């Protein structure tokens, strides 16, 4: 018999189950609040204490998020070997169930849902968060058509989570952007997922049918970008264009931001009735293929009189108004979705990178990518700014212990080193940062990791607790002679330089400084002359003189 009480929660009934989790309707007795409890097993391959620490940090961050289209997280706990999350209880059905029942949705409803989802994405992306697994299963729809998005997680490192689940089921992969298969998720990946769902809501099917994982990704990368109007003749041109842009395999060709997508939906929703009618008349309900069936629309478009002269044509159906409305819509789309002049773009990106908003850094990178492929001074400047933005994002992710969307093992190693530093393991952190400085090319694709690690190395060196008595410090220096790898040599050199800095001019530490000098020469030989031996000699002699 299943439990009826878990901590402060009274279990009322089961809502659903799968091979990975169980969901219950429960009541939080003290607050008298109805909640949903989702239970997840801690895999045996994940250390329990490590998993619980990460879950606690994750939930603390999630509790701070507040958006009308995001399911609210109240807290988490542990019951036996299972973790449970307490979240807002939503009375509704999943978008998957809605599509299964209705096949496809009306244009107005798709616009409404698209507006709500893009509003949430704008909120998340402004906080430098991504959902990364946005599918109809993660979206609940209430009786009054309000969207509620579930399963936002903050610790998705590429395809790895705290619970070590690495499977990418085809059902999820169908909604993933091509770059997620190789590089990890970004804000642009969420936009791609939105495009897939819009296409499915409009047509009743996926743009690319699931096959094997490899073939599915090749279809996305190499296949023709699907058009909604091939299946839905009444789809407005602007909506078809937006969906096609969202489904572009090249992330930089997608809309510049979730804000641009939301503004597009918002503009249409808030347009005056006449303008809406204009869009529907010109780009929606009229189509040359059905002109023979309903000739009145063809006559209206061509400016001919109505067959019934007694019926006055409304002003918003007349040709001048229709043309003006359509031009306004496409001008708005061009403004929102087309990038500015390259030099202006670089200037704008520099301003965004200087801001304190992580979402600005992300958007700056997307704007800079196409310019970096060119030649000349502007391309070089764009490249330098691009990696400056990546470095700021990396440091920010390390501060929050968030590594979703990162593209390399080196970036994850940097975050792990930063965590060691936070936990007080400064010597291990120093060695980890030194290793990254060694292995990451300062002029290559990991230069942002190199320079972030180099800066952290300078900071953590001053935080190292070194033995104080000269005799213990001498023994510590002797241990550094075992350094062989490039990273260990860098770490040893930094420690020796720090010892010299702290004890220069102190007569009692003369043997220590002499030993440090000898060890620096030894390291220089191991590094094959990368250090200036004469400079070392002069510096140490100066230390002794002082």
Structural description of this entry:
- The chain has 546 residues and is α+β, with helices and mostly antiparallel strands.
- The chain folds into five domains: 5-89, Phosphorylase Kinase, domain 1; 93-266, Transferase(Phosphotransferase) domain 1 (Transferase(Phosphotransferase), domain 1), CATH 1.10.510; 271-333, no CATH class; 339-407; 470-545, no CATH class.
- 53% of the residues lie in helices and 10% in strands.
- It is built from 21 helices and nine strands.
- The protein has helices at 48-62, 95-102, 107-126, 170-173, 187-203, 213-222, 237-246, 258-270, 273-285, 295-302, 319-337, 342-353, 358-372, 377-400, 409-422, 426-439, 447-461, 470-479, 486-503, 510-526, 533-545; strands spanning 5-6, 9-17, 21-28, 33-41, 73-79, 82-88, 92-94, 139-142, 147-149.
- The strands form two sheets. Strands 1-2-3-4-6-5 form a six-stranded antiparallel beta sheet, covered by helices on one side.
- β5 (73-79) and β6 (82-88) form a beta hairpin.
- It is globular.
- Mean pLDDT is 77; it is low at 155-168, 279-317 and 529-533.
Topology:
Blueprint lengths: L4 E2 L2 E9 L3 E8 L4 E9 L6 H15 L10 E7 L2 E7 L3 E3 H8 L4 H20 L12 E4 L4 E3 L20 H4 L13 H17 L9 H10 L14 H10 L11 H13 L2 H13 L9 H8 L16 H19 L4 H12 L4 H15 L4 H24 L8 H14 L3 H14 L7 H15 L8 H10 L6 H18 L6 H17 L6 H13 L1
Antiparallel strand pairs: 1-2, 2-3, 3-4, 4-6, 5-6, 7-8, 8-9
Helix pairs in contact: 3-5, 3-8, 5-7, 8-11, 9-11, 12-13, 12-14, 13-14, 14-15, 14-17, 15-16, 15-17, 16-17, 16-19, 18-20, 19-20, 20-21
